[in-house]
Description:
This is HNH endonuclease. InterPro entries: HNH_nuc. GO terms for molecular function: endonuclease activity. By secondary structure, this protein is α+β, with helices and mostly antiparallel strands. The chain folds into two domains: 3-169, BirA Bifunctional Protein, domain 2, CATH 3.30.930; 212-287, no CATH class. Helix content is 38%, strand content 16%. Strands 1-2-3-4-6-5 form a six-stranded antiparallel beta sheet, covered by helices on one side. The protein has a two-stranded antiparallel ribbon with strand order 7-8. A hairpin with a 3-residue loop joins strand 3 (61-68) and strand 4 (72-79). Helix 1 packs across helix 4 and helix 3 runs antiparallel to helix 4. Mean pLDDT is 81; it is low at 1-7 and 173-198.
Amino acid sequence: xxxxxxxxxxxxxxVLARQxxxxxxxxxxxxxxxxxxxxxxxxxxxxxxxxFSELGEKHGPVAEILPHxxxxxxxxxxxxxxxxxxxxxxxxxxxxxxxxxRALFRSISPDRKVEIxxxxxxxxxxxxxxxxxxxxxxxxxxxxxxxxxxxxxxREVIVPMMAAMAELIGYxxxxxxxxxxxxxxxxxxxxxxxxxxxxxxxxxLLCIRLHGHRCAVCRADPHDVYGDAGSIIEVHxxxxxxxxxxxxxxxxxxxLVPLCPCCHRAVHTKRPVPHTPEELAEIMRRKDG
Length: 289
């Protein structure tokens, strides 16, 4: 390899080494699954490749980031050559999981030019190993081989894409119920059973991408108050899951709002049906006169 290309590859490799932990954390928070990050080192193009560590690079979805021109990244999501069992799981995904996966793709800005090969971007399905999604991310302020550009591409494109795949695969374990005979002594450790929809990390990711970090009631942004310790916005179901008389399709766009911890606790002081965000906001206005 010529010296200039070798140095360029080493430069991206250095960026990857420094940012591997940050990239993995961004993806873990959005997908709820372990992530592996590797280097794509070709003769002409060098970039980053990301996959689910549990599945391996050849047995599941892989996201690839490559420089495109002087200011852009091209992103490609595809499946490894031995993904048969993973694809079988995906084909078994229900209506709710499919809706959330599609919504995660739609949350990517139209400026990123997301395309799904041979399919409508609003009604796509992962039917076989030929599934491929692509996007183009143009960076206005950073060159594509910088740490800032790589992290931005991961956060804005790779995270929702891989989160969608995690939803279809089923990366979301549910705790087993606690036996009725469990002793009731204060201070003892116990397992808490939480509904799958309530604890799904992809719900939180999608809610914040669609509605932002500001509380829907008090309009406070925890980042403004707590700085780096401020990632504490919570996700609230507008229709309590426990009150559903029968299962219904889950709408990931309209069923969730972000609430700060105080407002979230406050809406649930009314039982069995919580206050709506509008009702709580009106209570707060009346209190302030």
